[in-house]
Fold this protein.
Amino acid sequence: MARIRTIFGLQKKENETLDGFLTTEEQNVRCWMDGEGNLYGATLIFAHEYKETNVEYGENGVMTITRRNKDKDNVKLLLEERTGKSLRPVNVSGILPYLRMEGYGWSPKGLPPKHWWHDETLRSLGGRYGFKVLPLVITKKYARKMKVNEVRMEEMRTTVKAIPSAWSVI
């Protein structure tokens, strides 16, 4: 079983689903892993913000593609601070179970002091009424369907030259 930890704790499960988890099929969702192989996940929202690709066109059909994988450093630092462990970024794909962290609209009045709404980083990730977190422990049926890949954080650059083709007109 793959152990999944969050800094948020287990929330109330959904009554409408069979096992209490909501699920989604996601590709390349950024999570973080510690040295023991535990996976930490803060949110499934904003997964598309983790890569930056630039394309430059040169002469004679030469094209240079540069890609850099980015990280949510504020989330990673928050997780490291709360867990006391050093984390590295990983991409996770497959069927992911998640729980919804409930918020309380726009007003933080009456919220417990440790509620996520009081944390500026967490508030930037979520919406008005909540955001998604991975559960503390993922059951085998989900763990088998998940794939975890290391993330290359250095800049990747490739140059592609167009190969002209001979065309005949009839």
Notes: The chain has a mean pLDDT of 78. The two ends are 63 Å apart (CA to CA). The chain has one domain: 4-49+71-156.
